Amino acid sequence: MRFDQPADPNAADQGRVLGRPHARIDGPLKTTGTAPYAYERHDVAVGQLVGYPVVSAIAKGRIKAMDTRAAEAAPGVVAVITTLDREPLPKARMNVVHLFGGRDIQHYHQAIAVVVAETFEQARAAAALVRTDYHQDPDARFDLAAERRAHQDDEVEPASRVGDFDSAFQAAPVKLDATYSTPGQCHAQMEPHASIAQWKDGTLTLWTANQMVAWSRKALAKAFDLPLEKVRLDSPYIGGGFGAKLFLRADAVLAAVAARATGRPVKVALPRPMIANNATHRGLTIQRLRIGANEDGRITAIGHDNTTNTPPGGGGEEATIPTEHFYAGANRLLVHRPLEMHLPESNAMRAPGDTAGQMALEVAMDEMAEKLHMDPVAFRVLNDTQVDPGNPERRFSQRHFVECLERGAREFGWSKRNRTPGGRRDGVWLVGHGMAGAYRGSPAQASGARVTLKPDARVRVETDMTDIGTGSYTIIAQTAAEMLGVPLEAVQVSLGDSDSPVSAGSGGQWGAASATAGVYAACLALRERIAERLGAEPGDLAFEDGQVRHGGETTPLAGIGGDGDLVAEDRIEFGDFRDKDYVLATFASHFVEVGVHAYTGEIRVRRMLAVCDAGRILNPITARSQVIGGMTMGVGAALMEELKVDTRYGFFATHDLASYEVPVHADIGEQQVIFLDGEDPCSSPLKAKGVGELGICGVSAAVANAVYNATGVRVRDYPITLDKFL
Ligand code: MOS
């Protein structure tokens, strides 16, 4: 079905199951350690070998020679396959760098060989015996600050321009001109990249951990020059993604290469210390924000100039994204400067663009409010807009940002905060309060599903949608239960198999709204099948308590298709009215209380509140989990996380979980999440939006603003570690 106009207020669902809190249906499998993750698929592909990656020790140059003799002679080794043994694989679709690219080295820890053995230990030991000679290219660029200085006068076509920024900024009576930097960040997902590959009868099967099954199926087909139907992916359980698993990675390619060479199934996981440099990261940014306002606090000019690293052909971290649409202001200039460097591949990480952008923008808004002697909440309320400031032809389909701000201020007790920075003590702790706004777009992607009604009234839903820990299994089961009037327990959900209908996948916070809409479409198609059976019109049927009511009669769903299954498949396509007439976005306010130790500078986050405007919430439990996960990640970005670049050699030195710090439970105080009630009829037939990426946006700035309020020291360089303000 096509979704090409706002949803009917009397949609087919009654909110009996959808919109209600349900614990995740895959929870027991996960808490008992029995959910089958890719590396532990012992139930598939008999006779698995283990592959261990060999990775480049230089960041840019060429391989002169590789000596694999010692590795080949090591115990248990079945094969050593180097990137010189074969034609370089073509670049996989949508990947920025080559995953197994021949002699040319594009980045540090690029995969250059895979050692295959009977056991993991044998493969790892032998991998250490591979000797590689390189020609190192001295003309390599690793230092973003230096590159920025070299390119600061480059003429760049603005990403967006409205009005006349330069004149308006110059004329503004109150101005801010400040520069902020954010480091590279690692997804640090719990489950590393991992795949088992098998070749059988010309078909490549991959049991893997991947957010976008259909994209990666195409990527594999391209890399191995296979027709699409000769590639199958299975990715039912995924231990975190955050964007790391949007695209094919080296684990998949090495496993496939090794399985083909040995004629046996091969499994490969990227060891944790390889992930940061071999896979992708959130790019580094240096952002200059200029805001001009009238004395009354109205913004007249807003400029955002972002510099970021990218490998050749990439887009870098688009930190200007939020500034395009968030606050009012007639004169706007956004400039995005991705500089080609030789660091590992920067790519999408949770709310790409928006997270890093709001780490700067929302601190700049705080600084600007201070210059204006305004409350930062009131400053944001004053500059709210219902019209897209980047394109006045469009309105926000729904924007309750002011409600987020006002409700948050009330619930948090914002009026009781101390307005003078550095002025509140609690024993040895300096106490501070900060807030920020949050913005994240809410796109949609076409999504398909197949729904089967069994003779016993059980329902099976199949789609290649993924659950990266987000709750997809649960909201999809809720959708089918809602639409067919059966209990949640009667619905079985199969995800992540490329043999199932192609879905939206998990990315860009479009997954929940898009995939449930696809299941909704398939359920409507199944209702039609049922109506045919009953000789009724689909619109006259009511589905409830395992029964269908029609014209005063009641028929049990069980047996309605006789002894066989009733099967229906459909797909939701989203019409362009969404983007032509509207901006679809989600909003939040974040309020944070921190304590900063007066002598050591240790920062403790004491309590956090988020108020979210994200359309209809399909399941308050899983949605809240998404938001508190985002808030926690935002604390990490504010205070801890940094892929520290060794600018001599071009690698991230903090490439394991000992040196790349992320928050743990003990780092996080009280977290409260409030969802505003709001259905967005422009978003999907179920009026839902995404929330998983909204949860991180703005959080780090709220923490930074609270640290400023506690100490009176403004740190514009993340992460805010104690050395930066003592
Ligand atoms: Mo997201 S960074 O599109 O998984």
UniProtKB/TrEMBL annotation:
Family matches, as SMART domains: Ald_Xan_dh_C
Domain of life assignment: Bacteria
Xref: SUPFAM superfamilies: CO dehydrogenase molybdoprotein N-domain-like, Molybdenum cofactor-binding domain
Protein name according to UniProt: Xanthine dehydrogenase family protein molybdopterin-binding subunit
Residue ranges annotated for the Aldehyde oxidase/xanthine dehydrogenase a/b hammerhead domain, each copy included: 32-138
Annotated spans, Disordered: 1-30
InterPro entries, per the entry: Ald_Oxase/Xan_DH_a/b, Ald_Oxase/Xan_DH_a/b_sf, Ald_Oxase/xanthine_DH-like, AldOxase/xan_DH_MoCoBD1, AldOxase/xan_DH_MoCoBD2, AldOxase/xan_DH_Mopterin-bd_sf, PaoC-like
NCBIfam families recorded: peri_hyde_PaoC
Coiled coil location: none
Pfam families linked to this entry: Ald_Xan_dh_C, MoCoBD_1, MoCoBD_2
